[in-house]
Amino acid sequence: MPDAGPIPSQRLASFVAGALESRGVPLADARTVADLMVEADIQGYGTHGVFRLRQYLARLAGGGCNPAPRIGVDRETVATALIDGDNGLGHLAMAAARDLAIEKARAVGIGWVGVRRGNHAGPLALYVRPQAEAGLLGMAAAVGSANHLPPWGGSDLLLGTNPIAFSAPVEGPDPFVFDMATTVAAMGKIKTLAQQGLLMPEGWMIGRDGQPLTDPARRGDGFLLPIGGAKGYGLSVAIGLLAGLLNGAAFGSDVVDFTTDTTSETNTGQFVAALDPAAFGLGDDFAEAAARVFAEFRASPPLPGHDPVRLPGDGRTARAEARRRDGLMLNPALRRDLNVLAGDCGIDPPFPGEGG
Description:
Blueprint: H1 9-21, H2 27-42, H3 53-62, E1 72-76, E2 80-84, H4 90-108, E3 110-118, H5 129-133, E4 137-142, E5 164-168, E6 176-180, H6 187-196, E7 205-207, E8 212-213, E9 222-224, H7 230-244, E10 268-275, H8 284-299, H9 316-326, H10 332-345
Parallel strand pairs: 2-3
Antiparallel strand pairs: 1-2, 3-10, 4-5, 4-10, 5-6, 7-8, 7-9
Helix pairs in contact: 1-2
């Protein structure tokens, strides 16, 4: 009988790195990207982790993504920088942006690092949680890797899910980490439902006839919906200005759908920021104050029929530690797909004995 249990995270990361290497990615870069992809699953962002391997391999094979980029800093001040990702795997440029933003925040109180000529880089939480763990506040945003919704009141697909994330240090095991799309649901969630043959709830998408769309396999026939109506639309546009136009990256009709087009450079734009509370005279006092306020939130009696009050990030540290210790449970459809990819790449399957 095949082993349908958890897979150790290091074994999964070794498989992902091997698959990337088979498409020309240098070993060190392949390991960096693989570790970040698996870390996304460990942190609970399964729609933006190893699930994305098929897309990345397709773009590497099609020539749309540079397997061996030379990532560098185009412009720099004491507090800001602009990184050119050289059209490489997006995780590489975003990890460099995160580290440089933290370095600048430590030196002058704030660091803001933009990225141009990037690619899809997984969940933004990967690029803000480290700030909180280092006692800093973090922020990151990105122009989505495809356009899935029209401007408010329009019908042309000119905006993406344009995610944004925030983090802050909090005394205790869990930092504040808030990572969201500016649409009701991220396209990654819809793609995972399609892979598993499941329907999506009403309210995520509408068809061009204005009626609810619940079949994820028909996602190309409709639009994603922004959070909060026109407010979500406005937030998505603001992110496009900061992560796209400000960096000389794609926004609007210039955005390339990285799933359907595997040959064109996407010029994805992102930014990562870090802020040191010490610049405001706080330091560790910030984490203590945040913990006190959050304790008040959690102590608020829940409404009838509701769960107790939680904060973004609550319990995530313990769950991540459990996955690191016990391994990762991947859904059967994803396990089969990874085995298929192993065959395509000429490497050993991660789930021997299971279908592919």
